[in-house]
Amino acid sequence: MSAAVSETRAALDAGAPMMELRGITKRFEKKLDFAGRIAQRLGARVREEIVHAVDGVDLTIRKGEVVGLVGESGCGKSTLGRIVAGIMPPSEGTILRDGLDVLSLSSQVVRAMKLRTQMIFQDPYASLNPRMRVADIVGEAPLVHGLVTRAGFDAYVDEQMRRAGLDPAFKRRYPHQFSGGQRQRIGIARALAVKPDFIVCDEAVAALDVSIQAQILNLFMKLRQELDLTYLFISHDLGVVEHLSDRVVIMYLGRVVEEAPSETVFARPNHPYTQSLLASVPRIEARKRAFAVVKGEIPSPLNPPGGCHFHPRCPHAMPRCKVEKPVLREVAPGQRSACHLNDVA
Amino acid sequence: MAEPTLEVRNLRTHFFTRAGVVKAVDDVSFTVERGKVLGLVGESGSGKSVTGFSIIGLVDPPGRIAGGQILFKGKDLARISEEEMRSLRGNRIAMIFQDPMMTLNPVLRIDTQMIETVQAHRNCSTEEARQRARDTLGMVGIPSPDERLKSYPHQFSGGMRQRVAIAIALLHEPELIIADEPTTALDVTIQGQILAEVQKLAATTGTSLIWITHDLSVVAGLADDIAVMYAGRIVEKGAVSEVLDTPLHPYTAGLIGSVPSRNKRGEPLRQIPGMTPSLLNLPPGCAFRTRCPRAADACMAEPAIEQILPGREVRCFRPLTGAAEQAA
């Protein structure tokens, strides 16, 4: 690694935390309906169903960092992203934005604060209002929040569109007149129009073709430099995350199992889940080879296994893993992992 | 050399819409040998799925096969009656779709659906059919197949459902399976499991496989040969290792270059400019011309697919033949 990169890395380490999550938990409860309550009275074994989508997550995102959040479906990565973006309150825990507790502030302060965190969604078809013209999709929020006057509206929208790589001549068009890649650019222009400094991307390139995906990823990197943005990049695609992120956080069934700088995770994964995840990824360099296999399926988050959630699929599981929840602790500088194997060694 | 399982010659599948003729598949030729895996790669709208549908005779109006031959064991599928096609479909040729719910009926139990499929092509008792269904479920790695036979599709996870769809495709030990993005919607660990099963099956049963996907990395590990499609045509064809190591067509090179792991971390990805043209409004000459870094005046004419190296075919006037160009 060049000296310049290590220097920026050092500067990042010293950077103030932009977002700090402490013990964030999100539960989704399905309340019993009337029939269910009667059945319960009569002694039937029906219970309220509770999904622990996010289970006691601590996460710090420093200014200027790109943090990749990786996991398979149902691991809670999107829920965590929504909590970070402020569009979903956590059931428990504290969120600090620039050192201030978001949940205890007055609603007016929070409103201004929330504007500085924006989100870009996976599906460019579902996340744009089909009945609004592009100019209104991009310009509505800045107008409402007083970032731009009615007189300056057109010029402002043009600038936002140009920055996202869209021709302002198309601003009178509707979303259905654009391709998937261009729609994603509209989504990006909309997010950036309110001048945020922190962006949550939830599978923002998953629905795009390979060649378009590269264009959008390059746009993300260009905007990061131009506007000094911080990203939380949620994806199931390890290749994309490896390319983009400074630090990677890996989740499994609502818990963080490993967290480390990008190079470390891909060179020396510590947690058995991270290892098997990396082994499952098809690589273009590979030729006619036997695919590595993790046994079993992801358990239902309604009824997760006790102890370490990964133990039924883990090749190294010990009796202790079934009963005791491993804590996330440092195993190497900057690398944290939640696995009992680290105690044995 | 033995007769290939499938030989597609100059296939044209066109859709006659009110807005004009959409040449979804235009002059496509390829061969699949027994027990081999062909990766059919392309982006959305490149015609890769329509090629698959054409082979198994599932192209709906306004689309129809407008020309060419589909020789399955020497028999031309483009010219046989619907009745004959029905006796082959699900029997000697099977298809696996991206969404397993396209294959499975949500209101019928798995055993009902599987036994029905077995008995559609084979004269046997229900008990024998159930036995066959149970064996195939076991073969694709479904634990306790006896109990699972009695479940409904919604009681399975996405990965398990796709396994059931694969098991149904395997019931009659088909000679050819067409798989249309079957692992795209699955998680990586589950995708890895299914790819491993499929690989094992192709090797042990001698079934030929056409694997349709947009993901070059999956093809890299799974297929023997690869055909890259762009705007309805095959632009490059050859053995997987050769095509991926030394791509000849600028589009193939561009696709490989835009895979993140092929780039240095943190640096801009090499990207193909522009976007896929509409099939209704293709630029004259080479369809890739407008996005191609090597386009020249010659590209205004339509290139033909030619063998320029042993076992390597490419549809380009200015292929990347120098080693330095390919590495770039």
Describe the 3D structure:
The complex is a heterodimer of chains A (345) and B (328). Chain A is an alpha/beta fold and 345 residues long. Chain A has a single domain, classed as Rossmann fold. Chain A has helices at residues 3-14, 34-41, 77-85, 107-115, 134-144, 153-163, 180-192, 210-227, 238-244, 262-267, 272-280, 319-323, 341-344, and strands at 17-30, 49-62, 66-70, 92-97, 100-101, 117-120, 198-202, 230-235, 247-252, 255-261, 329-332, 335-337. In chain A, the strands form 2 sheets. An 8-stranded mixed beta sheet of chain A has the order 6-7-8-3-9-10-12-11, sandwiched between helices. In chain A, strands 2-1-4-5 form a 4-stranded antiparallel beta sheet, with helices on one face. In chain A, strand 11 and strand 12 (335-337) form a beta hairpin. In chain A, helix 5 crosses helix 6 (153-163) and helix 5 packs parallel to helix 7 (180-192). Chain A is globular and about 70 Å long. Chain B has 328 residues and is of the alpha/beta class. Chain B has a domain at 248-327. Helices cover 31% and strands 23% of the residues of chain B. Chain B has 11 helices and 12 strands. Chain B has helices at residues 48-55, 82-88, 110-121, 126-139, 145-148, 158-170, 188-205, 216-222, 240-245, 250-257, 323-327; strands spanning 6-17, 20-32, 37-41, 63-72, 75-76, 93-96, 176-180, 208-213, 225-230, 233-239, 306-309, 312-314. In chain B, helix 3 packs across helix 4 (126-139) and helix 4 crosses helix 6 (158-170). The model of chain B has no long low-confidence stretch (mean pLDDT 88).
Please give a quick description of this structure.
Chain A has helices spanning 3-14, 34-41, 77-85, 107-115, 134-144, 153-163, 180-192, 210-227, 238-244, 262-267, 272-280, 319-323, 341-344; strands spanning 17-30, 49-62, 66-70, 92-97, 100-101, 117-120, 198-202, 230-235, 247-252, 255-261, 329-332, 335-337. Chain A has 345 residues and is α/β, with parallel strands linked by helices. In chain A, helix 5 crosses helix 6 (153-163) and helix 5 runs parallel beside helix 7.
